[in-house]
């Protein structure tokens, strides 16, 4: 088994298929930074689907069991279903999922993604009321369309859909209880995520974080909340079962990346849309696999490069962060994918 320098195995791979997005969420791609003048990756710089597949196969050969497609907004990448088909044909890959803002999740798109081989969907939704939602996405995108996208995902047969809400103090924390009430009894899993200091564009401040404990306290003010055992070692979300007085239930996950980091269990590598491997969300530099791929098509060379990158990995930013000022060169979340 391939282990990093802190004995952590390599189990997950996040693949960013584009650094572009149709939203400008304030905590991820603030419009003041990602405006007209921003230089996104060029079309010709992106890895081709064949290159992504080659790299993914090599990662699976080194122990990766789960792949998640992300971005930017992955549904912006044209013909994504073809890539999904190619990846889902990789033997030994146990799980293929996708994270999306669901703005482009039409009925047809939900069906085609599922039949191409996406097994699970994570959908980002930070508020249920339009004033807050449009303020957050900064492009005046109505929340109703995202809710319709979620309905399409359910109708297409996706199971275990996860709804992800990044909670920012004073911005959308008033929406924790309404969000829980909305999804009660629906069968989806609702996950609350602490606002993280990823990248530099969002000018993150610690006092903007609603902590996992604060989220839990809010939920407990309204619901009977009991802990649920983790699905597997290294699961990032702490799981809870909520029950209302009417006995409607909801599974909730709370991700405490800031207040209670989980670097000791972090088994995730990230591949940028141009083929750099990042060992940590907070890394400032990636390792260029596209160069390896383009100079040397031999699979063994690619495998060796992955082994060298992972076995040298020492990253545990969130556990070391306390008291430190963030580095000025962290990669942006929209570039490597959440
Ligand atoms: N565009 C897709 C979406 O929003 O679902 C996929 C890419 S997005 C970068 C992936 C996830 O990262 C989203 O759930 C988003 O809310 C989360 N995210 C982005 N910036 C974050 C931050 N600073 N703290 C916590 N989560 C963040
Ligand atoms: Fe786009 Fe997702 Fe970032 Fe929002 S969180 S700006 S939807 S990439
Ligand atoms: Fe993993 Fe880096 Fe996050 Fe720690 S800070 S959990 S090493 S991505």
Description:
Helix 1 runs parallel beside helix 2. The protein is globular and about 60 Å long. Strands 7-8-9-6-5-4-3-2-1-10-11-12 form a twelve-stranded mixed β-sheet. It has helices at residues 49-61, 80-88, 107-116, 130-137, 143-155, 176-183, 212-220, 289-295, 299-311, 317-320, 333-336, and strands at 12-16, 66-70, 95-100, 120-124, 162-167, 189-194, 224-228, 238-243, 249-255, 268-271, 276-278, 287-288. The chain has a single domain (12-336), classed as TIM Barrel (Alpha-Beta Barrel), CATH 3.20.20.70. It contains eleven helices and twelve strands. Strand 1 (12-16), helix 1 and strand 2 form a beta-alpha-beta unit. By secondary structure, the protein is an alpha/beta fold. Bound molecules: S-adenosylmethionine and iron/sulfur cluster (2 copies). One iron/sulfur cluster (SF4) binds at residues 21, 23-25, 28-29, 71-73, 101, 124, 334.
Q: Which secondary-structure class do the elements indicate?
A: alpha/beta
For the report, how would you describe the main beta sheet? 12 strands, mixed
Low-confidence stretches: none
Number of domains as seen in the coordinates: 1
Within CATH, the superfamily carries the name Aldolase class I
